Amino acid sequence: METNPLKITELVLRDAHQSLLATRMKTEDMLPIAEKLDQVGFFSLETWGGATFDTCIRFLNEDPWERARALKKKMPKTPFQMLLRGQNAVGYRHYADDIVERFVKQSVEVGINIFRIFDALNDFRNIETAVNTVKKCGETVEGCISYTVSPVHNLELYIQMGKTLESMGSDILCIKDMAGLLTPDVTKTLITELKKNIKLPIHLHTHATTGLVGMNMQCAIEAGVDMVDTAISCLSMGTSHYPTECIVAALKGTPRDTGLDLNLLEEVNDYFKEVKKNYAEFESDFQGVDINILKSQIPGGMISNMENQLREQNSLDKLEEVLKEVPRVRKDMGYPPLVTPTSQIVGSQATLNVLTGERYKIITKETRQCVMGNYGKLPAPIDEELMTKVAGDKKVTDCRPADLLEPEWEGVCKELGDKYTSEDDRLTYALFEKVALKFFETRGKPLPEKPASTKAAPASASVAASAPAAPQGGSSIYQVRVNGKDFTVEVAMGGAGTMAPAPVATSAPAATSPAPAPASGGGGSPLTAPLPGSIFALKCNVGDAVNAGDTVLVMESMKMESEVKAPQAGTIQSILVKEGDNVQTGDQLVIIS
Q: Are residues 152 and 335 in contact, defined by beta-carbon separation less than 8 angstroms?
């Protein structure tokens, strides 16, 4: 009997916990099982990339470069795989070519062997630099098709994409079904036709969200797929992936037998069953099957993070409304596939549309950039009303967006001076400036325990704790009720979170870091915060003259930047906030006379 073993990539150290636990698994919970994982014989272990880099420095106070090194030391045999967002690297914007090149080279240095490289829009101009750099480093390129469903995406287009990725030098072709949108018949047809038209091994990445994953996997295997992504069973299904053990057991004794040891996998699973308990507060409420995801197309990792964002704003009841708004925004924006960063861009815009009660009342900086072509070519035309609102008479970018960027590395080195001189630190700063600086200050220091779990605290609790409030900050805001009165308390945390807490009816002054005071009798009009978040940048000074519609400051919320504009012409009478401050909806920011 001729055998053709199916190869397995295990996702427990990256996408599985990104999908189910908001990417919060710590390195200390990975290292004890690392040697056992190395014995299994996986095709590769996904250990890095995606949201792990950001989460390490933003929430966990961990150095992501050191995580990769520590894991490699424990697992020298198994190839390490990472998810790389092309020109976005592991960030949320396009970086200049010199940053992308250095990031890839340093990733190789810390032990990454296989680079799964994708562009959110399938604009392959945006992966050229990363692909070429990986090839120069002698490592493996896994070129990605970001799979989606829309009026403009079809089989012929995907075959053409596969041929393009092959001609660019990909060693493996990946079908990246980040939202679990494949159906059995489509899976079989897609893989069959790709196998006919290209010579590369084909790797299938798909999520379990819609409940079709087992049938899809079987159809892919029958169609000759070479590799599949799976997750150890206790961190599988839901918004995650198909269980590793199920694939291994199903193929035992067949020509596609994986050769992996179920007893060894059971030991791995027993370990992660216990580890999972450490992250209960981050666990997604989505545990089962939602066929409606075929409509919203929201990827697994985005759902758990979206839940956290809404919960932190006391707006979890609006999740269903946001899920319905996502496909509307996606259509308006030309049907981009929903994968980082476009999933965050579309998802955050949809959330703002719902929370503000008006579609596109606030348009994030990233939404504007995407509509203007600065993330690449969108698959379909933009909604005319949205385009007019964003672009006006400005010209949309039609070249490779990175061609418009000046080299950045020299500026990074100049800004950091001789304070942070390692390649690791300079790259971390290049990708996440303000978050990185706060991380450098807290690195190596233990993070204090949170007083209460965001998820577990009931609405009537005397202390209602929010998640850490500022993406770059070193503190968190908590709402505390004492003798029936509400106080806002700021607690130094080190490593900061993404969202400001939800508004509460506050009758007492803040204990520390008070909310902006009401305008004094100077006759000025207050400009208030349109959403919870942090002050990212001030664009005005006291005494400046502004026109209606001028940007006065920039807020960061849900990892996206939103410009706050003057509602009227006048003079900046006073500024009530500073950069890094956490604010809630309705807080006064600036007084305009």
A: yes
> Residues 416, 423: contact at Cβ < 8 Å?
no
- Contact (Cβ atoms closer than 8 angstroms) between residue 453 and residue 281: yes
Among candidates 562, 567, 572, 592, which has minimal Cα distance to 583?
A: 562
552 — alpha (psi -120 to 50), left (phi > 0) or beta?
alpha
Residue 94 C-beta-side C-alpha neighbours within 13 Å: 26
d(CA 391, CA 396): 8
Instruction: Read off the tokens for 446.
Output: 């233990």
DSSP tag of 80: E
User: Distance between CA 324 and CA 331 in Å, rounded?
Assistant: 12
pLDDT digits (tens, 9 = 90+) for 315-352: 889 988 998 899 999 999 999 998 878 888 898 899 88
C-alpha dist (Å) from residue 534 to 143, 155, 443, 505: 37, 44, 22, 20
Q: What is the DSSP letter of 364?
A: B
Residue recorded with tokens 């503190």: 475
Give the C-alpha separation, 477 to 465, whole Å.
Answer: 8
At position 149, the amino acid (one-letter code) is V
Q: H-helix or E-strand containing 442?
A: helix 433-442
Q: The dihedral of CA 48, 51, 52, 56: what is its sign?
A: positive
DSSP-derived secondary structure for 160-210: HHHHHHHHTT-SEEEEEETT----HHHHHHHHHHHHHH--S-EEEEE-STT
Calculate helix-pair angle for 213-222, 244-251, nearest 10 degrees. Answer: 40
Of residues 57 and 309, more confidence is placed in: 57
Distances (CA, A) of 423 to 94, 107, 109, 416, 472: 20, 11, 11, 12, 21
Rounded to the nearest angstrom, the gap between the alpha carbon of residue 356 and the centroid of all alpha carbons in its chain is 23
Q: Where are the beta strands (DSSP E) in 313-359?
A: none
Largest CA distance in the chain: 89
Q: What angle do CA 495, 497, 499 make, to 5 degrees?
A: 155
Q: What is the pTM of this model?
A: 0.79
What gap in Å lies between CA 205 and CA 73, rounded to an integer? 27
Per DSSP, 152 falls in state T
Amino acid occupying residue 433 = E
Task: Note the pLDDT tens digit of each residue in 431-456.
Answer: 999 899 999 999 988 877 655 544 43
Overall size of the chain counted in residues: 593
CB atoms within 10 A of CB 527: 23
Q: Which amino acid is at 488?
A: T
Local structure of residue 518 (DSSP, 8 states): P
Closest-CA residue to 375 (of 385, 366, 386, 388)? 366
Sort strands 588-592 and 44-49 into parallel, antiparallel or unpaired: unpaired
Residue ranges with strand state E in 483-550? 485-492, 525-528, 533-538, 545-546
Question: Residue 526: how many CB atoms within 10 A of its CB?
Answer: 18
Is residue 560 predicted with pLDDT exceeding 60? yes
Cβ atoms 11, 242 nearer than 8 A? no
Residue 356: which H helix or E strand, with range?
Answer: helix 342-356
